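Curious: why this fold?
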Amino acid sequence: MASDRGKSNVYLLRSSDRDDLVASVDALLERSGIEGIAREDQIVAVKMHFGESSQTGHVRPHFIRRIVAWLMRRGHRPFVTDANTLYRGTRCDAIAHLRAAAEHGFTQSALGAPVVIADGLRGTTETRLPFDGRHVSEAAYGAELIKADAVLSVAHFKGHELSGFGGAIKNVGMGGASRSGKLEQHSTTKPFVRDTCIACGTCAEWCPVDAILVDERAAIDDETCIGCGECIAVCPVKAVGIRWDQATDIFQEKMVEYTKALSDAKPGAVGYVNFITDVHPVCDCYGAAKEAICPDVGIVASLDPVAIDQASYDLVNEAPASEAGDLSPTYRQGSDKFKDLHPEVDSTVQLRYAEALGLGTRDYELIEVDTRP
């Protein structure tokens, strides 16, 4: 993981330098050392996000097929997985989830590996990992993720309305959690409705616990609300906000503690790949695709989740801003795109806290992988 100078290595395959980015993935994986997360004949969970049915930002299935084939050539036995959602989207139970995955091309026949929902039919098939954290005493994960011998996180790096950005840490810590684990992580975030509400009812349709009633405007029942934050993401006029205080900081810290619990349970058996492509302003749970905030950067791989997320964050901020994106007119290249998108969220909380917990280091060496003849 670390270079001789104490930095963690992060390997970059740039989109702009490749005629065939898919074919170049093999070289990226070879250089990264990810092969070492599992021994021959061991089961590897390829943890990804299949995307909501109307979403287009997710990692494309032909990349996953390539990764699966690479793992199989090395004697590993991969399956592709995600855990169910809290909200009423197209992935709230295993039947709907598998249907949504298939719509996007994530099937066994297309990928060459089984597609398994990690927390079972209704999100309750879980394994609890003991953890002595600031917020978490047990991390509730999708059981099939924990039963695997190793985990390869394949994350789509993008913005996020609660954590500022989502990458490797979020893909594992939040995405791999069972329904009760997701609920625990969201429990401090309580939304409210602004006067700009148009009473369209979209938030109520997505609420998993019927905490929202709509008359002349939407109203959220705090006692029923579980803080999943999906009403924020789906509101078409941005009328739903968060009572910020420390809610998003705690959310990020819980997410980090979950990721650390998995890392502790599988020492040396977790690898990370981030796709810095179609970098949308919000999560792929959002019901419709958004304009990318910058041109595609490429794909990065590492054995360190903190280093890979820090590098992804830096690469996006160093990239030019897309003219059609959601950034403000005053945005300057080199400043924090994620702060511009979500000004109330300090997205570096997850990086600082992860480093403090010993999950990895923010100090990295970026190594470009050149596959050109």
